[in-house]
Amino acid sequence: MTRFALVVVLAVLGACSAPPAQETATPKELEAASGPVAGPTADKTRVLPGDIAALRVVDSAVGEVVADREQNTLYLNTGDGTSPPRPTCVEPECTLVWPPLLAAGGRVEAAGVDRALVGTVRRPDGLEQVTIAGHPVHRHVDDEQAGDTTGHGTDGRWYAIAPNGAKASK
Prior knowledge:
Helices cover 16% and strands 22% of the residues. It is built from three helices and ten strands. It has helices at residues 2-16, 27-34, 92-95, and strands spanning 53-60, 63-67, 75-77, 81-82, 85-86, 108-110, 118-122, 128-132, 135-136, 158-160.
């Protein structure tokens, strides 16, 4: 009986250590089954709607400001370089509070903002961040509704950005 139990235990352990069957599909398999897939793909020329940053001008408590597609206020950091653009908020501790506005492939729609002021800069992680007048722009985690400007004036260096690329002020 002991020999039988040992054989059963070895068989169970062997089954547990077998590599798991592949349960995920590749992006191409998913696309074939259900259409375009969000996220990185082998085809770098494809642009999904979320890849195109959209800027718009909205009214706020601090005057006209530039906002993203969901009308979240965008901010500049006076500590960032502007010529050339250089973001300083690149560590996770900072980007969790001040998420950068990204644009895959540098694609940006800019309603109400002078197109000559709009650009992108490559971040250290390889992603492209939207710039306005050379300022890399960010959202603020505490802005809960469209038009909120809770980050304006934070630490004496974060300010809502006006359509002309300067600090917003009424």
